[in-house]
Amino acid sequence: MSSVTDRLIQGSMWLSLSRAIVNGLSALSTFVLAWYLAPSDFGLVAIATTIQVILSSVTELSLNQALIRHEDPSEVHFSAVWTLSVTRSAILALLFAASSFPIAEFYNEPRLTSVMLALSFSLLLSGLANPRRVMLQRDLIFWQEFVLNVSQKLVGFVVTVAIAAIYQSYWALVLGTLAYQITNIIVSYTVLPFWPRITFRHARELFSFSLWLTAGQIVNTLNWRIEYLLIGKMLGATQLGHYTVGNTLSTLPTREATAPLNQTIYPGFSRVRNDPVRLIAAYQRAQALLAAVALPAGIGMAVVADPMMRLALGEKWIPAIFIVQALASVFALQTLGSLVQPLGMAKGHTKLLFIRDAQMLVVRVPIIIVGLMIAGLPGVVYARVLTGLISTAVNMLLVKRLIGLPFFQQLGANFRALASVALMAAGVWGLSHVLNMPTDKLGLALHLAILVITGGILYVGSSFVLWLAMKKPNGPETEVQRIFVKFLSKAKRMALPKSA
């Protein structure tokens, strides 16, 4: 490839197949589980997994990022990472299991004890993964990543859905997680053979880079998980279940649409971190492409959430519709500054990222608590929207500090995507109010299909018209055109011998 950015785009497209499969399985799993399980089942498991995630983040060592940035990691480095990970996960598993009964008493939910005991085994498994896997990202190797991603997701999906369909029990969520992790361990050592040995050599070297990332991870997890514990305690498992499913569905389109590019961003930025001109160019192109994909995915999800939720999940999940509408929109807008994380890591400014996370925690938690106290669950959602917009502005200002790219120049680079998605949202919203929403399943499916197709035509059409009107500037449209031309030329070359 002629540049790192080209390799990022090529890798992103290669991984698109993997993410398409994972995306489909994730969405289907959520819909199937929501159909078979009650909102309180999701709320119960959400309490346990939230505590698990917080405990994990408090002790997160961020060693994988240190390996990616290392100039030449050796087998000893990998063994040291494995040793540290296993030690940490064993201690966490014991602590989590020991706290299961007191936490169940606190939430007045006896079922939490057995759920937390099972998830303590999940914590133990998390430390046994093959540390060499991270080198696939560093070296921009994608076929092995495809095998790992798809296999573990497929096994987890089959186990989760089978248990949910047969027993209609919250254990589907727990056992599916365990199956996912076991598959990850088995496949990672099969695809990337590695025989670890116990050693603590290079531990200080690895910690020197990961210290601030670990601190940032702690703060960031508290930032994005604390409301689960508050809702579970103050509003109960049913409302927490609505919030959990609504939040999961709202993140799904943005996260899955941008995951192929996100997986290659940090290694790509790391390769050009000492060349300011190439780094700025790589950031602008990657960020514009990210927004061009994320904005229609997230905001499109928001404008069709009502018929989609009624069709896929049924009446018991109607309270989650508003959550999806609000959060899917703000998640999409947050991609305007989301690449500051890999950018700061690539430049080694992990302390700066930690300071940002700590400041957002101080701002975010009080706003959410006030929203919860005043308006209950809707108040939490409004608080999430407000703090999400604040976070976007902070990230874009931080990008300016890191590479000198002005705030309005960052915003201007996304003008066509923002204008096109606004036209799309207005058109779909207007059409949804002109058409009466049917109540039968077939009618809802047709109604949803009409809205989705209309939105796609409006977004793509307006983006193309604006690109032509602005005399074809460099941007996502240019990348798509160049990739399409390369694809056609390769197809022609492959077809020539056959015609001869």
Structure description:
Keywords: Cell membrane, Membrane, Transmembrane, Transmembrane helix. Pfam families: Polysacc_synt_3. It comes from Rhizobium leguminosarum bv. viciae. The chain crosses the membrane at residues 20-38, 44-64, 76-99, 111-129, 150-167, 173-195, 288-305, 317-340, 361-379, 385-403, 415-432, 444-469. With 500 residues, the chain is mostly helical. The protein contains 20 helices and no strands. Helix 18 runs antiparallel to helix 19 (441-469). The mean pLDDT is 83.
Task: Describe the structure using short key phrases.
globular, 20 helices, 500 residues, mainly alpha
How is the topology of this model organized?
Layout: H1 4-36, H2 39-58, H3 63-69, H4 75-98, H5 100-106, H6 111-126, H7 134-138, H8 143-167, H9 171-191, H10 203-234, H11 237-271, H12 276-303, H13 305-312, H14 321-334, H15 340-346, H16 350-403, H17 407-413, H18 415-434, H19 441-469, H20 476-499
Helix pairs in contact: 1-8, 1-11, 1-12, 2-6, 2-10, 2-11, 3-10, 4-6, 5-6, 6-9, 8-9, 10-11, 10-16, 11-12, 11-14, 11-15, 12-14, 12-18, 13-19, 14-16, 15-16, 18-19
What's the short story on this structure?
The protein is built from 20 helices and no strands. It has helices at 4-36, 39-58, 63-69, 75-98, 100-106, 111-126, 134-138, 143-167, 171-191, 203-234, 237-271, 276-303, 305-312, 321-334, 340-346, 350-403, 407-413, 415-434, 441-469, 476-499.
